[in-house]
Design goal:
Shape of chain A: elongated
Radius of gyration of chain A: 25 Å
Number of strands of chain A: 17
Oligomer: homodimer
Number of domains of chain A: 2
Number of helices of chain A: 18
CATH superfamily of the largest domain in chain A: Succinyl-CoA synthetase domains
Strand content of chain A: 15-25%
CATH class of the largest domain in chain A: Alpha Beta
């Protein structure tokens, strides 16, 4: 079986969206999420007490979806589970493009009643050949057209990353945390119990989506493993797919069963199959974010040798350990580089063997750029990475150095633009985390990739390198 | 050889401190660091251009330490390396308690000249039986008496944690980042090349220091391995010692050699010896911070079974994976707990199998406290840990829930006080990291331990459990 691209297009690009059962108690979260839609939005709510609140949002309300005066592409359902099948019946009669059930309380509860109700929905949809998203999920997010599942998600601009998530939290967080990290979503879906459309369908769809350059997935379990891995193999040939498996342990699997009613597979099998398919495995939200960031913003590395810059001696040791432990190398530089460094580098309290422990040499953007260029031009170096300690930077900017953060960021932007080699930063925070956040914002604006710890930066580079090498074969 | 406690007391509690060679170029960082001393502070600076700046700080300047009109306990030297031996000569004649050399450019440069100059200092000090801290370091920090090595370190209040660091950065960062995490230093030292007083001496001293309840160490290399591990074994019997070894890899070891001239030992040997001595190994600054926090603020656990609370379903799966992967267990709760939970827990979109996926049940501090008490009272649970998602919390506080963060923190404080079981929180940030920082501040004020990721919380608990079990034998 293969998913119907035209029908998927319709639900990912709806021109008419209907929200059924939204209410004041949740501050009309669904209507507020889709008010941004480039298209028509209607409400269906039979409770008259809710009508004034819905009208205040400027949304026309109907008592039945059958009364909506135009074809409906995508329906968001937030009614109690006991009436879900009645709503579904109307949707089928209306011949909508797809129904998304935010409604939960189905197989994930592990109860007889929950399983029964889920089976009813599934049978009705299959019989009517209706596409269903969920139940027990947040549904589709297409920022470009303003179709959201959370009122704080950005819209108006499309991104490059597709995200397929069995969890609503992770889908929401990926869009929001991704955004402040320079990662923008092309299309995403939270699909919960996935009883009709499942991970494989979405993967196949986003695999063929031109706006989607890379795909991330959070999966607790798949229904048809053979089809999933066959599809994964095909898609991963065309674009990078990063997979985070939830329920990797016995305890996690039990939680996954309570969450989305998923039966999980052994993580060892997953791991082997992901590798075989040429996809990238990650094990946490942070790692997912880091690897996607690396895929988008770091040039593909050709080898394992890194040229490092750190702001103090203690950090030079620690950054070296972090990269070496991740499976990378911190080599000696070439004699040409050492000769040039020796001509100006102040070694009192510093050192330039690699890492460059820059210390007081971090005195002007020009000098930083000069040192980066030496690392970038060194034949022993495949990738350049530098620490920016927001704490020591703020000290240097107060004492001894006469430049601004913006001037430093300009120098890094210039290096990023001119260097043939992959480049990224590691922004360590120290005690003043708010300072680091404001520097991160400036780096993100200039598309300079940055990671918050040495380990995370080193790990992201290693995953990118492994991916690049395995796909170059 | 054993360190002389009386002489160590003198340099950790100096009544008279002299700074030699401080200057405007570094904004008089040393004088500003020790102006807070409960005692006398003098400057020695022969450059007349610097005198007005020094006097403006209210510090009396002399041209030679020999002119200081009272006994000197601790000298901070920030002169160029070429004149360090002349300063040392005067200090020896003055019979000071100890000399600390911030001055660098010695064996860590790997140059003949650097090694020669270091040997000169070492021989002079040994011949005169003078205690020396460093060179190439930041020296001693005793917040209680206002002896600092950085102008932003807190003082006036003593803490419980001793820190011994071969790196000035890590010593400074431990005090500053520790502080915002509720970890306060009793005494610490950055000792750099450690040519006279070495890690073992400081360890022995802090091992016998009554104000020091736990000890952290960042070490790149030790001079007398036998004595170090003998001392470690003794000290670790009396109080927890957490060791972070810098230079764990070949590349890291090379950086360590450039940093403090250290010859590092194989990490496998270190690991085995640390374990044998009953100390705790950590591998990063963050892990050091987490484990020290756990030692200070989490009651000692008696088993591996955790009762977990997470704010959404996706996080319930992920928190379970994190704890299980760390070697802990997320068990089913007792029937009594399930019965009680069933009496009030709203399972629409949530679940209470363990983790409690609280979802909409996170509606009042009373209900949170009730759920925590169920976990804390459950016979299958050894430790209780809960996620606070600053993002979802702020949403709940806007929609559906009528309480403040302070009221929530009060409920947690009450649970922490009444529960016999270990308890901690994991504060996930989402896209609004600044919100999480302000919640962290409230938690720290109430001594509620908190970690920023599931992995870090789980790892800290596992290390605490292993430590507790191994010392209970």
């Amino acid at each position: 079986m293969s998913v119907n691209r035209e029908r998927m297009d319709r639900i990912f690009h709806p021109r008419c969206v209907v929200v059924i059962g939204d209410k004041k108690q949740t501050n009309y979260m669904w209507l507020r999420s889709v008010l941004t839609l480039k298209g028509h939005v209607y409400s269906v709510q039979i409770n008259k007490d809710e009508w004034p609140g819905i009208e205040a949002l400027g949304v026309k309300n109907y008592s039945s979806i059958l009364d909506i005066p135009e074809p409906v592409d995508y329906v968001i359902v937030a009614v109690p589970r006991t009436v879900a099948h009645r709503v579904l019946e109307d949707c089928i009669r209306k011949q909508v493009g797809a129904v998304m059930f935010f409604t939960s309380g189905f197989a994930e509860t592990g109860t007889e009643e929950g399983i029964r109700l889920q089976n009813v929905l599934g049978e009705m949809a299959r019989k009517a050949d209706l596409y269903m998203v969920g139940p027990n999920c947040m549904g589709i997010y297409n920022p470009e057209i303003g179709l959201r599942h959370h009122p704080e998600q950005y819209c108006g601009e499309g991104g490059e990353v597709g995200f397929i998530s069995q969890s609503g939290t992770h889908a929401t967080q990926f869009s929001l945390v991704g955004y402040v990290n320079g990662i923008k979503v092309s299309k995403s879906v939270s699909y919960g119990n996935g009883i009709i459309l499942d991970s494989t369908d979405y993967l196949e769809y986003l695999g063929g989506d031109e706006d989607t350059r890379a795909i991330g997935m959070y999966i607790e379990g798949v229904k048809d493993g053979r089809r999933f891995f066959r599809t994964l193999k095909e898609v991963a040939r065309a674009k990078p797919v990063v997979i985070w498996k939830g329920g990797q342990t016995e305890d996690g699997a039990r939680a996954a069963s309570s969450h989305t009613g998923s039966l999980t597979t052994s993580v060892a099998i997953w791991d082997a199959l992901i590798k075989q398919c040429g996809a990238i495995r990650v094990d946490s939200f942070d790692e997912l974010l880091d690897v996607v960031k690396a895929l988008l913003y770091i040039k593909h590395p050709h080898g394992e040798r890194v040229g490092l810059m750190a702001m103090t001696g203690g950090q030079s040791v620690v950054i070296s350990d972090a990269f070496a432990k991740a499976g990378l190398k911190v080599p000696k530089l070439s004699e040409i580089s050492y000769k040039e460094l020796a001509s100006f580098f102040n070694i009192a309290g510093g050192s330039y063997m690699n890492p460059l422990d820059v210390s007081s040499n971090f005195s002007s953007p020009e000098l930083v750029l000069r040192m980066l260029n030496i690392l970038g031009g060194d034949e022993n170096v495949d990738t350049v990475a530098m620490e920016i300690s927001s704490y020591f930077l703020s000290q240097r900017l107060r004492v001894g150095a006469k430049f601004t953060v913006d001037e430093l960021v300009s120098a890094l932007t210039s290096f990023r633009g001119s260097s043939q080699k992959p480049f990224f930063t590691i922004l360590t925070a120290g005690p003043k985390e708010a300072d680091a956040l404001s520097i991160r914002e400036k780096l993100v604006q200039q598309s300079i990739p940055t990671f918050p710890t040495f380990q995370r930066g080193a790990n992201a580079l290693k995953k990118l390198l492994d991916y690049t090498l395995s796909h170059a074969e």
